[in-house]
């Protein structure tokens, strides 16, 4: 049997994949987002640059996967009140944005996403999808309890919460205010409640 | 009398200053923030790069001045209610962030500020100083009317409003929701009111 050249169906080596992702996550913490190049990631992972480019279109997509794609098993909070649920959701966002790799990449990564027409359209979905799913469940319960109206604008609330956390943590927050999640949750809950 | 070399006290040529600032503002709209280099600005302005570096430490400081430093004569709103005043303030932020040059530079410029230890500490003051002054006056009136408590956390509210507008407009908003300012103002006003 003659050997066949790699075909489109040839499975990718999973060890390369995790070596690359791990190298990217290490480098952004060590040298920051701007200084982390595909070449440096390739060298750290012990692969060629083409091995990286076969899997990811470019640096933003790779860094996003390395830093923000986690097996997200966190249950949706169910504290009994909207303010309580929002506090837990927000503390989760604060912790996620403040983790070393996320804090290192967020402003630069968002800027690269915003500068790419294809990626710009994916900002809200890529960065906020898990949070939006959980917020929808929290809102359903709040509607059932009569706390908020069914037509409460979920995207506006999500943008407000994510934007506030990004601004406070991602841009200025060496030491994020420990009361941030509770205060912001209280203000937003009171702001959208109808009873 | 022999000619003397330029001394530290020699006044800078104001025409160079405005030519440089104007060139930067044009270029970021034409080619975006990332592609706007000091060299390109110098060429457009008809000056040498050293002329630029004598006045500004680097690109972020220059672009910030070119895009965000305006003679800000907008009066602080006084509509009679907190929600009304916040709506006007927010619409001002929406308009400012959505203007072509600001929209072109905001994500990348914020990323460069965040990546520089000196500039990072100035993000809140540089970008939000005029808004904070106006918000403080709006809050004073709201306290006097008994709408909010005197200890309402002004930085948290400002971060929330600016973050929400930045996220909605700066990152995703080709066509910003025309109701954004009013909705966000209503939610935040209701969220912080005590009566």
Report what the structure shows.
2 copies of one chain form a homodimer. Chain A has 195 residues and is mostly helical. The first copy, chain A, has a single domain (14-192), classed as Tetracycline Repressor, domain 2 (Orthogonal Bundle), CATH 1.10.357.10. Chain A contains 10 helices and no strands. Chain A is elongated, with a radius of gyration of 20 Å. The relative contact order of chain A is 0.12. At the A-B interface, α6, α9 and α10 of A face α6, α9 and α10 of B. Chains A, B: InterPro entries: Homeodomain-like_sf (IPR009057), HTH-type_TetR-like_transc_reg (IPR050109), HTH_TetR (IPR001647), Tet_transcr_reg_TetR-rel_C_sf (IPR036271), TetR_C (IPR011075). Chains A, B: It comes from Streptomyces rectiviolaceus.
List SSEs of chain A in N-to-C order: HHHHHHHHHH
Distance between the first and last residues' Cα of chain A: 75 Å
Q: What is the 3D form of chain A?
A: elongated
How many distinct domains of chain A? Answer: 1
Separate helix tally of chain A: 10
**What oligomerization state is this entry in?**
homodimer
**Share of helix among residues of chain A?**
55-70%
Q: What would CATH call the architecture of chain A?
A: Orthogonal Bundle
CATH level-1 class of chain A: Mainly Alpha
Chain pair with largest interface:
A-B, 39 and 39 residues
Largest sheet of chain A: none
Low-confidence runs of at least 5 consecutive residues of chain A:
none
Percent in strands of chain A: under 5%
What Rg of chain A is obtained from the alpha carbons, in whole angstroms? 20 Å
Give the name of the CATH superfamily of chain A.
Tetracycline Repressor, domain 2
Report the average pLDDT across residues of chain A.
88
> Which class best fits the helix and strand makeup of chain A?
mainly alpha
At CATH level 3, the topology of chain A is: Tetracycline Repressor, domain 2
């Amino acid at each position: 049997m003659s050997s066949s050249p790699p075909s489109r169906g040839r499975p990718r080596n999973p060890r390369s994949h995790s070596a690359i992702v791990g190298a990217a996550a290490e480098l952004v913490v060590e040298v920051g987002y701007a200084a982390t190049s595909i070449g440096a990631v390739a060298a750290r992972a012990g692969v060629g640059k083409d091995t990286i480019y076969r899997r990811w279109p470019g640096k933003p997509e790779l860094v996003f996967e390395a830093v923000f794609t986690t097996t997200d098993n966190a249950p949706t909070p169910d504290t009994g009140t909207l303010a309580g649920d929002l506090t837990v959701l927000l503390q989760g966002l604060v912790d996620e944005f403040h983790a070393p790799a996320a804090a290192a990449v967020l402003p630069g990564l968002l800027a690269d996403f915003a500068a790419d027409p294809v990626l710009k359209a994916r900002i809200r979905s890529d960065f906020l999808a898990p949070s939006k799913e959980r917020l929808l469940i929290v809102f359903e319960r709040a509607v059932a309890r009569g706390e908020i109206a069914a037509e409460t604008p979920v995207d506006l609330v999500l943008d407000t919460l994510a934007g506030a956390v990004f601004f406070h943590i991602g841009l200025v927050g060496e030491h994020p205010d420990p009361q941030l999640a509770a205060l912001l949750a209280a203000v937003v809950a009171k702001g959208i409640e109808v009873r």
